[in-house]
Amino acid sequence: MAPPSNLPRLSFVDSHTGGEPTRVITAGFPQLPGANLTEQRATFSRDFDHWRSLINNEPRGHEVLVSAVLVEPRAPDCVAGVIFFNDAGMLGMCGHGTIGAVATLAYLGKLGPGVHRLETPVGVVSATLHGDGRVSVANVAARRHRAGVTLDVPGLGPVRGDVAWGGNWFFLVDVGERVLDLSQLAALEDETRRIQVALNGQGVTGEGGAPIDHIELFAHSSTPGVDARNYVRCPGGAYDRSPCGTGTSAKLACLAADGQLAPGQTWVQESVIGSTFEASYELIGGEVRPTITGRAFITAEGILVAQPGDPYAWGIGVSAAQDG
Length: 324
Ligand code: PYC
Description:
The chain is α+β, with helices and mostly antiparallel strands and about 325 residues long. It folds into two domains: about 10-135 and about 300-305, Roll (Diaminopimelate Epimerase, Chain A, domain 1); about 145-295, Diaminopimelate Epimerase, Chain A, domain 1 (Roll). It is built from five helices and 15 strands. An eight-stranded mixed barrel has the order 1-2-3-4-5-6-7-15, surrounded by four helices. A hairpin with a 3-residue loop joins β8 (about 145-155) and β9. It is globular and about 55 Å long. The structure holds pyrrole-2-carboxylate. Pyrrole-2-carboxylate binds near residues 20, 66, 94, 95 and 234. Pyrrole-2-carboxylate binds near residues 66, 95, 234, 242 and 246.
């Protein structure tokens, strides 16, 4: 669908969770047709992609940002439906983004401490806002789909990893004692890009041929009390500044499958910038149900404006309609 000629004004609140930004659109987004959130996300992707671009892409957003629109929930007892997206397209769930959305709703006075259910396109999650501002997200069920898959990665050689679901599809690679820190960013970006290309080229997917669009390298951490450090490449190529809620969930599914973490045991996951999430899981009906705890801070609120005549009104790469 072509961008409309009347330009939007969108209210937003920005936050960061462990350094990873989230932008929640609080007013101005059009109604999304669809019988449920999965259909609404498909409508968004097909007919409203220029809105995604305006909100999330340069010059009003950037590649690190994850944004969210709030919609009327269809599932019972949910405070909101939430659809997450970034510079490359739609996401399934988003752990840091859910923590950011709950912090945003609290900042706006729309919810207080307690348990709140949120509907996402991949299922209902429940978020507990604690009195000190931390948020615990009881995520959708996580599972390991394939263990020990060997990819032939040009420039790297054989790379072995697990395919797991934590609300998005991940390829998880154990890089042992390697140092994952900010001094390694260029190499980590190059390595995970090569792995992404190899996954696509060698037809390694999640269940039902679902594309794997997140790559997670994890390693030993030298920080006391931390179990592992990770570098997560998100769709589009930016790395997650947070420890990645869905990636940590996928990791828990692998640890559970390998008998390396018991239900209820705490796992502390550190990101490449050093921010942490605390995680654990319950086994419910044989399913791994992860809970991720972190904290978000509000960084800005305002109105996204696009003026008539702006060639980048809908973001770089989307041509403006007659917007005057
Ligand atoms: O926290 O799940 C997450 C996430 C996904 C992409 C960026 N962050």
